[in-house]
Amino acid sequence: MKDVSQKPDSLRIARATATLHAPAACIDLLRSGETEKGDPLKTARVAGILAAKRTDELIPLCHPLPIHRADVTYELAATSVRIVAEVQTIGPTGVEMEALTAASLAALTIYDMLKPYAEPDELHIQDCRLERKVGGKSHYRRALASPRTAAVVVLSDTVARGAKPDTAGVFVRDALIDAHFAPVAYTVIGDDATTLRDRVRALVDEGTSLVITVGGTGLGPRDITVDTIRPMLDVDIPGIMETARAFGQQRMPYAMLSRGVAGYIGDTLVLTFPGSRGGASESLAATLPGIVHLLETGRAGGKHPGGYGEAN
């Protein structure tokens, strides 16, 4: 099964439809709600909602999701009924299958309750499809539309002197390349405030769009990144690292100890990530959609993002 643990939660809505064709007499029964098994539309609505909530039990590879809202409605025509199922969740993966399952089960329920009143060839279900999907990759992109420059600055005394390899910074660098940042500079320095300040200032002067430091956000005596970067920020954006910490806290109880900050120095967006491979990867997973949106619409992009802004 695909691992979705590194995908951030977002609002996701899906709408699916299915159409049941039936004789006009059967449509009249749907309008009246009078069949020997009860009201087909009301019964099918309940069946569809329950199906949405239990899709992971019905479809083997579906991830279980907390369904926050599910509903089934109908559009009646002379010889058909169109079933409309809409499902909403806040989660890391989509609700397309939940909506499709709800529409399908509702259509099958109506079919079952009408079959005593029609010949087998007079009832048929067709055109079960996903009509609308909101949220996830299609609305919150994780890659730039056109390349922008970036730099990754790794702070670690042990890595700088060759005592151990860097994995966190390399991961962030490669992930930024995958997100269409180019070129992506990569530097390893020791935990030294003056060296860090000079390196970041040089990157700002070069017009680098994004700078991510990796390491030095903890509470140790050599963790100097935050105390060095915070006074340099012209515009503080606390929500960026708040998001990273909240995302990490769901996966690792020590995420709350990261002191990372983020904001603009001039027109350069600067973020400070933890030095562990897990902390750096989780921070980027949580913040990348916002980074892409901000760089394309915010301070350096020529438009004010306007609060939450519009989804790209």
* Share of residues in helices: 25-40%
Q: Please report which band the strand proportion falls in: under 5%, 5-15%, 15-25%, 25-35%, 35-45% or over 45%.
A: 25-35%
Q: Could you give a short account of the major beta sheet?
A: 6 strands, mixed
Q: How many distinct helices?
A: 10
Low-confidence runs: 300-312
**Got a strand count?**
10
Give me the side-by-side strand order of the main sheet. Answer: 6-5-7-10-9-8
> SSE string, helix = H, strand = E?
EHHHEEHEEHHEHEHEHEEH
Task: Write structural notes for this entry.
This protein is α/β, with parallel strands linked by helices and 312 residues long. The chain is built from ten helices and ten strands. Strands 6-5-7-10-9-8 form a six-stranded mixed beta sheet, with helices on both faces. The protein is elongated, with a radius of gyration of 26 Å. Mean pLDDT is 90; it is low at 300-312.
Task: Throw out a few tags for this protein.
312 residues; disordered C terminus; elongated; 4-stranded antiparallel β-sheet; 6-stranded mixed β-sheet; single chain; 25% strand; alpha/beta; 36% helix; 10 strands
List the helices and strands and how they pair.
Layout: E1 10-21, H1 24-32, H2 40-53, H3 55-58, E2 67-76, E3 80-91, H4 96-114, E4 124-134, E5 148-155, H5 157-160, H6 168-178, E6 181-189, H7 193-205, E7 210-214, H8 225-229, E8 235-236, H9 238-249, E9 262-265, E10 268-273, H10 277-297
Parallel strand pairs: 5-6, 5-7, 7-10
Antiparallel strand pairs: 1-3, 1-4, 2-3, 8-9, 9-10
Helix pairs in contact: 2-4, 6-10, 9-10
